[in-house]
Predict the 3D structure of the following.
Amino acid sequence: MSLKSERRGIHVDQSELLCKKGCGYYGNPAWQGFCSKCWREEYHKARQKQIQEDWELAERLQREEEEAYASSQSTQGAQSLTFSKFEEKKTNEKTRKVTTVKKFFTASSRAGAKKALAGKLKEIQEAKAPSPAIHRQASIETDRVSKEFIEFIRTYQKPGQDIYKQCKLFLDTMSHKRDLSIEEQSECAQDFYQNVADRLQTRWKVPPEKVEKAMDEVEKYIMTRQYKYVFCPETTDDEKKDLAVQKRIRALHWVTPQMLCVPVSEEIPEVSDMVVKAITDIIEMDSKRVPRDKLACITKCSKHIFNAIKITKNEPASADDFLPTLIYIVLKGNPPRLQSNIQYITRFCNPSRLMTGEDGYYFTNLCCAVAFIEKLDAQSLNLSQEDFDRFMTGQTSPKKQESDSFSPDVCLGVKQMCKSLDLLSQLNERQERIVSEAKKLEKDLIDWTDGITKEVEDIVEKYPLEIKPKSQALAAIDSENVENDKLPPPLQPQVYAG
């Protein structure tokens, strides 16, 4: 074995010390004085030992967390550390884990490693604070993704080691940039993606298909660890936009496929199943943590839409058919945190995936669908402004499909349900009309009463009523009057002889 091949291109002075293990080959200072063969053996042993120690530490940490959390339920307020401090310590502990390849490539002695391990154990003993189940679950998922990423980069050998070093450096840098705006953090992530891709292509001459696969794994590893810091941050108005979009979609619950010219017939059982799957996929997007996985949910939803259109029309779907159907699916599903997910994908997705391919195409259509919903008006649905306002306020709803227009394959229950809904709609309209007329009659009666009262008051004011004093009663002529004895005597009848 030649010196050059043994050194892998690193030229060494002949006066260098031999390998520490005494195998007769020259040692390399970069390999702590070992030759390549002996260093690989030592590296393998140290790596296996360190992995075993880390697993033991992880299990011990989990047990201590569970014990502390259980004890805190009976003795509230006995914790010596706040939750935020515990999370900070836990994060610092994880970033210093030595289960990475970077640990074995640094020139550190065994004494230094033991010292670091002792410091780690001390921090673990100090951080005996409870951890909620949701954070423990997130930690488990993060550890799983980290393990999968390390297993993946093994297949890339030297380029994989370089990828891991760059990722660790980026995560350490981002941990000190929490105070930056979300746009600045997005720029840092996009620059990092571009730099890693360029290094793989130019320095390591990795084929394009392997570069794309590596970038997908890098994005998964990076964004899983950064998710809770960069998704819907408090410094943005993403949450406010989410609530506005959800409120808007709820107000548009009355929109029918016919209004949007959706070429999908949900009366066909297979098409109805496709619609349900599409709605499920678009809702599931919020549960993913990686931008690529969120895009995959959008892509699956879109493919179900294309299949539903194809079955309904019995021919391949076109782009003009796809967008209205996607709008209808979004209105019917009302996905949670829709704007936050769109912004998260835009800011932190790998640009090569977002700007090209079917994922990028479907994502662009989803953005267009949301923009259409936000600006939807009466003209967009071919409705009058009066009908649109009545539908939006809930005063009435569009007429349901008449039972006579159903296809023969529709079951009797669906027909009866539509008849009942139509009857209820008619009764609702009749009740609203009666209430309106009753209110009008009540107003007319009140106005009539007020008018009569005013007229009476005007007449009384114009012709005031004068009440004269009561006069003395006259005495009857034929009555016995002792006071007027001077009256002449009554006339006596006279008889005349004829």
Summary: The radius of gyration is 44 Å. Residues 83 and 129 are 7 Å apart (CA to CA). The chain is about 65% helix and 0% strand.
